[in-house]
């Protein structure tokens, strides 16, 4: 049957369907889907599906990209990939097209390709051009059915026209909102990507991307809190204006984040002369006059050389952001993207995520316990709990690594909580079995807050452990770091009856005055000196003198890193109260400790030495 409606000057004639079928690439489809994610667009399509009773709707752009719906629902990943020439022709035509029955339509008779959308054969097809508010023709709205029709009546045609016009308005709105920053009026992230893609497809092998971070996010937020949004908007406008003065003519500046600009630079511009970058940083570091208030920012300028073949699947903005972020901390203020550093940060990020999961699930974390022996009696008086992480693919990760990671990622509270719960439950079990030992726990600087006392008391009560059975080990630097603020927390821990040890003593920079003020009960001489005792008379002298001094100041003196019988014997002759080290025992899994305690009830001791005399 011949079509009846909408044949304009560009109407189809038999054998005229010359354009080849167009394959929509997944990339193109994804880009289209994203750019057409207009609020209300889906609703328009559903309305059309119901009004016209058509199962299939597509918006086909004149670029060949298409956005598909079946039964009112958007198809993921752009829908069918092959575009029949009829759809492409409709998208490029300024007039409506109607095919009431493809099998009976003369214009399609000679066509070698059957009319199909990839979702099945099509008998009925109608389209309406889509134009933006500004009159730009962008494609066609197409409706399709596997059943033929006898007519498309006036009211149905009007519905199709209205839907096409609503979509045209929406696309403009989306494009305006998505592509232009309302404050600075600079083109947005999507426009940046489009232009970068175009630039690299114009036969240029690579481009330089520059990103400018105005200020660290926290600082910018603090600025908004103090001054209000109007000042923040004005700041972004003035920073943009100053940056535009610097960038080469014909280069566009884009606003790619709330506090970030970017541009694609002509290649030679930077390679020739890096002083130009110093100049940009200097300009940005000069105070800005923001509504009459002078303000300095903390800019970071990042650079990335990107090759055309790196665009597919890559995220150049993420990479260049890495550089601009690093630059914010550097005195020079600009930095070129460093793949190794990025890789390291990514690994760290992934590891932090996994550590957080490990802390939730608790199957990969474990505690080992290292005995501490009283040198007077030769008996184990305490064990130090040491965390272990058995990563499923990376194997055993040393605590020195993951504790620092937890510290940086704000996970320390939950790690310490887990260590306290786990080790106190274990201590309670050992005590029930008659092992009268104490427990020492390592605590980080970030744990040392008002909460710690309550947490410690809570866990001890739950496991019915007296707090005098516990000792918390803080590093020397932690105890020095926040001297005034934290002295109160430390005093509260002491009041509960728990001991406080200065761990790794000798690696920090405390002087005698600060040492005198530390509210600690014991001092652990760092293992680096102790291990060196066998070979260095200096180390031996250090350990001997520090032990003497510490004991005279009232500390209980513990030596760590006792690796040999020779060192053990040496420390027996010094002012040391306890020893810990591989010679005595390696850190042991909890189930091995009772057997070790039974087998090592009498290590060499001063008492034994005296008896032997
Ligand atoms: P640390 O508290 O000074 O613990 C002693 C470290 O020295 C342990 O290493 C232990 O295995 C090791 N060690 C003991 N005796 C010897 C010896 O004779 N020779 C040698 N070469 N090493 C010896 P580890 O278990 O790898 O722990 C390293 C550090 O990680 C600990 O040093 C501590 O600062 C931290 N850490 C471990 N577990 C925790 C935890 O649960 N919380 C916190 N905040 N830190 C922890
Ligand atoms: Mg320790
Ligand atoms: Mg230590």
UniProtKB/TrEMBL annotation:
Domain EAL: 348-601
Protein name: Diguanylate cyclase
Top-level taxon: Bacteria
UniProt GO MF annotations: cyclic-guanylate-specific phosphodiesterase activity
N-terminal signal peptide: none
Lineage: Bacteria, Pseudomonadati, Pseudomonadota, Gammaproteobacteria, Lysobacterales
Matching Pfam families: EAL, GAF, GGDEF
Annotated organism of origin: Dyella japonica DSM 16301
InterPro entries, sorted: Cyclic-di-GMP_PDE-like, EAL_dom, EAL_sf, GAF, GGDEF_dom, Nucleotide_cyclase, Rev_trsase/Diguanyl_cyclase
